[in-house]
Design a protein that fits this description.
- By secondary structure, this protein is an alpha/beta fold.
- The chain is built from ten helices and eleven strands.
- About 35% of the residues lie in helices and about 20% in strands.
- A hairpin with a 2-residue loop joins strand 8 and strand 9.
- Helix 3 packs across helix 4.
- It starts with about 20 loop residues before the first strand and ends in a 10-residue tail after the last helix.
Length: about 325
């Protein structure tokens, strides 16, 4: 099987490219939102979170770093999610890339590694086929999706913040996945920090959240992978997560390390109404459907990842900032 596992050449780029055209970010707080997966209730809550911070006098910028489509296989919901997301800043994920350019042989475009079962890959390819049929009814949105960049570099708090979907070599790369970093350590991550000269890298795509801080070239660097904004990420916790970077105000319920950077970086929960979303999800993807088989349990129960594992802690030293 190659569809859903292969990494197309047009997904690829070089780490050195990622910081070549940095843009100033005129905000106090930056939300980086990956893996919304077409969940409108999570989007409601994220926008409400930003509004609450703005009411407190903070300037909040939202940037979606891909896969904001997935479960929204319905014309009205597809239109609603994309119109709302594209009113903010966004880069493409593999899902959006394949929706804008169907039929290139990449399947879902996920570039799944070997540890993902073939049945999961096959279901994802079929989910993409269904979603592509819906997207075909909205050529104006397909055109807007086709124009999204694959990555961004922002100057935020004087630091270079690289925002990706996959990893620093591919739109659908898995080099920053929880599994890859757990097995191989932070050596490749450190090398990517050297190659990009980034201070902060934020990614998504690989489904599980990751937090790392390390010193490279005498500078402290931060890596955040939010897992998914639109479904659960942690054991027994159905809330989504987003990455939040702030110049002055730490998140009251954020998960993050203590590190000497001139900004606060953390993963913060998205507490959307689960009961409302599961009703909508079950209508779109009834029992036995591809999305239900792959995702319904996670939507209800979260994953097997604990907070301690996420933060790399042992004992009872869970750290909330």
């Amino acid at each position: 099987m190659t569809e859903g596992r292969s990494c197309p050449l047009h997904y690829r780029y070089r780490p050195e490219q990622l910081t070549m055209a940095p843009q100033a970010c005129d905000a106090d707080v930056l939300y980086v939102i990956g893996g919304l997966y077409g969940n409108p209730f999570a989007l409601d809550e994220i926008e409400a979170m930003a509004e609450r911070e703005q009411q407190g006098g903070l300037r909040v910028k939202l940037i979606f770093n891909g896969d904001f489509n997935w479960f929204n296989a319905d014309d009205a919901l597809f239109r609603d999610v994309n119109d709302r997301v594209l009113s903010h800043d966004a880069i493409t994920g593999n899902v959006e890339y394949e929706l804008a350019r169907p039929g290139d042989g990449a399947g879902c475009g996920c570039a799944y590694p070997d540890f993902v079962e073939d049945a999961v890959v096959e279901r994802s390819n079929r989910i993409m086929e269904r979603l592509q049929r819906v997207a075909g009814n909205h050529p104006d949105l397909q055109e807007r999706l086709a124009g999204l960049p694959r990555y961004r570099c922002l100057i935020f708090g004087g630091l270079k913040v690289v925002i990706l979907h996959g990893d620093p070599e591919s739109l659908a790369g898995w080099g920053l996945a929880h599994e890859a970093l757990t097995q191989a350590g932070d050596g490749q991550l450190a090398e990517w920090f050297r190659q990009t000269d980034a201070d902060v890298i934020v990614s998504t795509h690989t489904c599980l959240p990751v937090i790392r801080h390390l010193t490279v070239g005498g500078r402290v660097r931060l890596f955040l992978n939010n897992g998914a904004a639109g479904m659960g990420n942690l054991l027994g916790d159905p809330r989504g997560l987003i990455a939040r970077l702030a110049l002055t105000s730490p998140a009251p319920e954020g998960l993050g390390p203590e590190y000497p950077l001139p900004l606060h970086g953390a993963l913060v929960p998205v507490d959307f109404p689960l009961a409302d979303w599961i009703v909508r999800f079950d209508h779109l993807w009834p029992p036995g459907s591809d999305a239900a088989l792959s995702y319904r349990h996670r939507i209800l129960k979260g994953t097997s990842l604990t907070v301690k594992q996420l933060l790399g802690l042992t004992g009872t030293g869970e750290r909330l900032i």
